[in-house]
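User: For documentation purposes, I need each entry recorded in a consistent format: the amino acid sequence on its own, followed directly by the corresponding structure tokens. There are two entries in this batch. Please keep commentary to a minimum and don't merge the entries.

Assistant: Recorded as requested. Entry 1:
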Amino acid sequence: MDRGLKVFTALLLLLLVLGIYIRSTTPPAINRSPTYHLNDKIPLGLYILNHEIETIFKNAEVILWPKSFYEYGMHLIPPDSIQGKKTDETEQDIEQDIPAQISGTTSRTTKDSTVTWSNGILHVSRFFDCDATSVRSLLDYIREGNHALISATDYSEDFKKALKIRTVWPAKYANYENILINTGAGLPPVTGNWPYSGVYLDVDSLKTYSVLGYTCDENDQWMPNCIRIKWGKGAIYLHTEPAIFSNYCLLKNDNYKQVEYLLNLINGEDIIWLVQGQWEEALSDSPLRFIKSQPPLRLAWYLILASFLLLMIFNAKRWQRAVPYFHPTPMPPSNLSGRSAIYISRKEVSGISWTKNHFFLERIRSRYRISTEVLDNAFIQKLQAKTQCTPADAERLVFLIQKHRDTDYECTHDDLRRLNTAMERVETGSRMMND
């Protein structure tokens, strides 16, 4: 490699090492996105709650349900109450569709397909996505004497329509207590803006409900952000600040007391935690996530990268340097006359005639694309057609070339002069054609 390429390679490697050092020493940016994923350790993940929830519900079994509540309700129905005839294959398919955490719970239903014990339902997310069928199944389940805590900044339209509520987002945000404040329980207030939303609930005036927590709106008025709605024999607790359950809030001050109070509202024999969309492993944002998820493709990708690296190293060491081009210096006329004088003094006329024949036939091959292996009548016709010389000149030139090349004839100066004249007459005809 020349000096310039070496300097460029050294600078490139220096920049690469510097970039790696800066990236390794710079602390990673904090991910503030509200994922509420059970395995996320970011500020707004639920990693701590997922690992500590069993200590809160010591006498209850926590069931993680990664599907819609309608499917959980179908699982609770005894087989003899389902309309129509079931085959063994259908029953087996339903049993295989049930996670291992709750397998065997169908035997815990009573007659008339009603649940007589008190269970709790928990959901913590940014948005409670519940279709109309799941809403009906959830409300019927609560009506039988169960309790549900839904903590989300917004709810599906079917759910809000069934409960006759709506969520209100403040136009601006003030630094006030905005999480559950239960004066009777003596809980410490929670202050600050981030990561709380300040969303509050607006309930139909005909609906009977009790307020458990408040938030301050843009007009400095206290609005409900946690309410209890009586529903049959059970109750629904709506909470608009799911951030209180996040890793960040649980580790800050005494916020965990708010979480303990909220979760104790739904304490029962079983706690069904609805984690649809929060149970699976989080997908990577990398465009190569599918390749990296498959071992054969991942190995092939690493082999390709290694091959390119080896190719770059090999080319850097074996690359052919540029060869300088030197223009030949034209021979001055004095050298030509001197070289001719040497040939004449040595009387090597035959060598000169052989050289002239050789170079002349080479020009014929390269310029006119005519084969010179056999100098017959066909060659004479092609030469005359290409050079536009007379047939007599072409025949005379071929005769002289064969005479000096194919025989042991001793060439004289007069023969050489005649050969040169014949060649010039043929080339003169060619130049006239080009002009």
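Entry 2:
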Amino acid sequence: MKTNYQFEKRQRDLEKKKKKAEKALKKAVPAEPATPEEAAVSPGKTD
């Protein structure tokens, strides 16, 4: 079976994007501790 590199790459990219978003969120709101769950489930963000 051929390895699906595109899928793996997309998963890595999504993970990077999520971490970057969480980091930016923490930087933007230092007084409020942001949880990763809230950042991941925000309905306003789309690709």
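Summary note for entry 2:
Residues 21 and 27 are 10 Å apart (CA to CA).
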